From TrEMBL:
Official protein name in the record: Immunoglobulin-binding protein 1
Superkingdom: Eukaryota
Basic and acidic residues composition-biased segments: 322-338
Biased amino acid composition, Acidic residues: 305-321
Chain residue ranges for the region called Disordered: 300-347
Pfam families, per database record: TAP42 (PF04177)
Keywords: Coiled coil
Family indicated by similarity: Belongs to the IGBP1/TAP42 family.
Coiled coil ranges: 139-179
Amino acid sequence: MASETTIDRKLSEIFGEAYHLMGTFETCYEPTNSPEFQANIKKCIGLFEDSTRLVSLCGLFSSNEGFEEVATENLRYFLLPFFLGQLTLKLCNAERKELVEVAEVYYNDFLRRCEDYKLCDKPAAVLVVDNGQSSGDKIQELARMAQDRNAKLKKYQEKKELDDQIKLLKVAMEREEVDDEIKRDFYLKLLKSCVLDAHEELVSISQEKQILEHIAVMRRNEPEHQHKPPKGPAPKPLKPIIITRDAAQKAVYGLGYPSMPTMTVAEFYEQRVAEGIFPDAERMKEVNKNSLMNRVFQDNAAELDKEDEEKEKLVEEDDEEYLARQRAKDEFKDDHRRGYGNRHNRS
């Protein structure tokens, strides 16, 4: 989606631009469905997608690590799928059901990676109690409801405390020189806050999917003459960009979402080439052939080949001067081992 992205930009620059652009949405008073707002959303998504591609290419994350082993500057890249999930839900150019499903993939990918790196605990299994006839079942149901209420209050308090701390750390992060400990504390607290948000978003998505399914059933039951044909061509299906390097990782991280297509780095690069954003690999080879640096390498290689041919010719003709020079070199090497003349500061 990013039309201005170039392949030679640094990952930190692309992520920084997207993060700054996303921050402007909080103070934007334009309608969400306005062309200008939607254009900025698409641009921001494209930048975060390109950041995800570069994270995959660099191999910054490994499933057998903990967050303690991740460099401070790289902690922020854990947020990529979370940000993409948030932005996807703000789009208006596709079917709502499709947007919700794509966002669900992003949030689940974000939580799974945070769990792998011990940034958060796996959610406890929810005990579902059927509507029973006995009083014992009712007591259990009331107890469960009380536990759910207490858990929600605890999460709300934790979220409020995290957000207050994040606001203070954000002020410190805006200074020219920021201590590494402050940066790390900021990113870790931001990740914990986003984990809580992701869980809430998944609950909302689950509820919205039920509503959308109910609406779809009602539409199918309507008379045919009431169906309005869609205006214009159908939009292209969205594909979530998750942090994977190859098809094997794609298969692993795609588990649980068989109906949702995901893209590997190679597939994403091919798409960008087709859109004209990234250069074609074959075309770049042709360009490099005619480059000045390539010509210099070719000239040097030709000179070395010429020297080798001349040496072989002198050996074949038994040139006395050349052979004498070679024998002198061999005798010198025999009498003087390597490093013989380097006696500086040595006894």
